[in-house]
Amino acid sequence: MSTQCHSLPCILLSLVLAASASADGLLQNADFSQSLDGQPKVLAAWQLTHAGKALYQWVDDDGHSESHSVRYEGQEGVDLGPWVQDFTGQPNAEYVLTAALKSGGKALPLVRVMLPGDKPWRLASVQSKGETVWTVYSARFNSGGATKLQVQLFGDYRTAESGKAAAGTSAIDDVQVYLAAEAPVQVKPKDAFTPPGPNLALNKPYKLGAGPNYGYCTDPEDATQLTDGVYSVGYFWTQKTTVGWSHHTPALITLDLGEQQPIAGVSYSTAAGVAGVSWPTNIVILVSDDGEEWTNVGDLVRLGTEQVAPNPDKYAQFRFATDKLKARGRYVQLAIDASPYIFVDEIEVYRGPDELLTREPAGKKIANVQEYFKSARVFSAIVWRLRTDLNAARDAIQAADLKGTDKQDLLTKADALAKEIEAVPEDVPGDFRTVLPFSDLHARIYALNAPLLRARGLPPLSVWQRNRWDMLAPTDAPDPAELKAPPSLEVHLMRGEVRGAAFNLTNASDDATTAVIGLTGLPGGTNPRCVTVREVLFTDTKDRAPIAAALPDAKKTARGYEGAPQGGEVSLPAGCSRQVWLSFDTAGVEAGEYKGQVEIAVPGGTEVRVPLTLTVHALDMPAERTIAVGGWDYTNGTGSYDAKPSNIPLLIDALRACGVNTPWATAGVTPRGGKYDAEGHLTSELDFAAWDQWVERWPDAKHYCVFLAVGGSFEGETLDTPRFGTMVGDWARAWVERLRDQGLDPRKLAVLILDEPHADEQVQTIVTWAKAIKAATPEVVIWEDPTFQNPNEVPAGLFEVSDVLCPNLPMFMGFNEAGRRIYLDQQQTGKTLWFYSCSGPGKLLDPYSYHRGQFWWALKCGAVGSCYWAFGDEADSGNSWNAYLQTRSQYSPLFLDATSVTTAKHMEGIREGAEDYEYFVLLRQRIEALEKKGVSAAALAQAKALLKEGPDRVVAQMEGSQIGWKKEFDRSLMDQVRVEVLEVLTKLKDL
Q1: pLDDT of 961-989, one tens digit each?
Q2: How many Cβ atoms are within 10 Å of 525's Cβ, its own excluded?
């Protein structure tokens, strides 16, 4: 039914209303009620200069506030630009963009504010999430120094990306830009902020605890830019109006207000969400009357995210702001915690009522800011996680299709939980762990999801399956359609192999419960030793991105519930999912196909059985891996990073169990205490105690790799003298003799002289050392990992002296074919190729493509070694189970603390990757053996094709440095190809 009004009074009224609306905002014809000269396809005040006008219609039959709107009907491939309107704003002012959007289900309309020019920049945007009813979106932005701005309208976000239309329909209405202080309440975004008083910090001086050191934005004006009233516009950390630090936390900024002032609020403007830049984890606000004694009056991250927090996975500018302070002081200090980068363009301090001058600021007196940070960091992260999960629960409740008063009841519960969050005590228990949920309050927040699951048709207990390597969140759940076909597990492997399989459980009841997992029908009887049940724990990270990675053994239960199996017990928080990981170890298991089942039971009688087929092929996984597997574990001496005397034996056991055969040691294991004569000859015994201890910890290693970390001299002798070469030669010769005395092949010793050389002077040092070592002991392997951005710039001398060349794999993936060929061709000269990776944070990287995938790249490229930084590096926190303690990126694929080592999906990815590699070694060996026997080429054609094409297929999937865990793609391909190899090997077995 049309809502058109054709009478003159009605038309005049519409024009008056439109003019009134425009008077409140900066845009004309914001409600699309006016066309130009009566032309339905030409909107007054809006321009569309590109082709594609026909895809838009000015309609008078479906609007948001009134009957008018712009309707989009996309056609695939048509060139299309946006509808635009230029407008004038004030510099360095806060604005709100708002628009009513409606999707036809496929096209998602987008409205954005741009800074036009040679390098246009998006200041703000709103985009439909697919709602098929009118939905109002709002976004806040600051104009920076700009006054000439532009609003752009797209019927579908895809046209903004490609310039090409795509099929689908949508509608746009009521597009407006307001000064933030003048925006109607109903359109103000959650992060809109109205200062409680004048900005006391404007043009005031400040001191920085450490000089800014981020090159792209550092300049002399950093000394004044934080209080000059100018906000950055453009890519934040490349603007000179921004101040930035790299690898320095906390950053201390102390503002001098000139005299004691009443303080009601503070704001801190920053950006993050891309390129490894994370949001601040906490910003401690301290005040002082004299600059000596400080009082903590709040955490600006906590106070500034009460309504909304920035998205950790999307670039944005965000202002942490609060008007909740009741403080006074001449000095205001901000202690900012973020890593590895800290960026800020403006800090404001807001005046409060005069009565604050007579009050002592409420808060903890801080004697040592650096020391206080340890506990403040953890507390801030706890509150962040609670708030973020509660906000997500609220959004889910609002979007849910609930009956009667159920939605309001849940929102009322959410409001009560929000008050409990604000009352969480600041003193964090010493045994706190970032295992989710980490408190009863947190569990009750997750439990809000349970009624939503039931409303979607889920039963109290659901058993479902997705790829075990995919990222999983605590409140992820299956679609009802996924439950129509019950899951089944099918596992293929050789004898002596370790592989995983997994399924998920979802608890849609209002109460936490436990599930007992039992296995029957497998070799070894009920709950056999060949299968370990592991509970996949959700843990938070320093970057506040939860993961499901830790794989502790499920709690053993001697007796199940009545009628339930015995076996492993896993916890099921209300409203949450839990993954169960089954680790199969077929050592000693006879070949055959076994039809079993997984039995799952929870209290109250619910039982589910999942079919399980285990096929053990009549082939044997070699006990020793062909490929070298290492990870700078530094388990020599008293250890390094988070490898400590109390956990080193456990760490070594865990690494060896996962196929690690190439330990790394620091220079602490090198021979010590030598005396040398005038010519440089060794005249005394060397001390091998540290070396002997390390070898004893790692008997029968494939390689013993040592990071020498040399300088420009040896025992005081500089590199440019003949005596240097003699000294190093005798030293190396004595070391090799020690290996021979221990019954070790000297070729097992590999030395990394300088790490990641990327400059000519570094290469010259390596060449000098390498020549001295090789002249005396040609058996010793020179191992180097060059990181020249352009492979053509690697000095030839480095290639000449190196036995092993180990490029960084993500860098290698980014090279063009010619760049890769420079390393690959070195194999033809007798050099050995390895790969290593050192990206981070390690636990946010994909166990499938980053950890397991490196071995497939090795297969494709002929590499014989695979290393990772670093098995023992948990950011010097000492505890993987409390990631909030970390002040930088972590890298370990395990979960460590002082007295335990627990495997994780990342480490299992390394284990399985090494086994994948062995499949192709066995395939190549079998092909070669059959060719020697004279088996026809036709009989081997499939095997030969698979030997080449298998790794190519897998690697092609990972081109483009696809190492982030959150990326969505098919993670089943490696196992598909692996099973193909297994089947071919089985066929070739009896030829």
Answers
A1: 678 898 889 999 999 999 999 999 999 99
A2: 10
Provide the CA 680 distance to its chain's centre, in angstroms.
51
- Phi, psi angles (nearest 5°) of residue 146: -85, 150
End-to-end CA distance of the chain: 78
Query: Using CA atoms, how far apart are residues 297 and 285, in angstroms rounded to an integer?
Result: 6
Domain residue limits at 942: 806-864+873-991
Output the DSSP codes for 461-487: EEEE---TTS---TT----GGGGTS--
Query: Among the three residues 789, 804, 819, which one is the final residue of a domain in this structure?
Result: 804
pTM over 0.85? The answer is no
CA-closest candidate to residue 504, choices 533, 468, 554, 538: 468
Joined tokens for residue 756: 């990641």
Give the three-state DSSP class for 624.
Answer: coil
> Could you give the angle at the alpha carbon of 15 between the alpha carbons of 11 and 21, nearest 5°?
145
Number of domains in the chain: 5
Confidence of residue 616 (pLDDT cuts 50, 70, 90): very high
The band of 561, judged by pLDDT with boundaries at 50, 70 and 90, is: very low
Buried b (16+ CB within 10 A) or exposed e, 575-600: bbbbbbbbbbbbeebeeeebebbbbb
DSSP state of 553: B
212 and 84 within one domain: no
Strands 531-539 and 435-436: what pairing? antiparallel
Tokens 């169960």 locate to 580
Query: Chain-wide mean pLDDT for the chain?
Result: 92
* pLDDT interval class at 18 (50, 70, 90): very low
What is the rounded distance in angstroms from the CA atom of residue 824 to the CA atom of residue 815? 12
Cα 2 from chain centroid (whole Å): 50
- The pLDDT > 90 percentage for the chain reads 79
Answer yes or no: are the C-beta atoms of 292 and 383 closer than 8 Å.
Answer: no
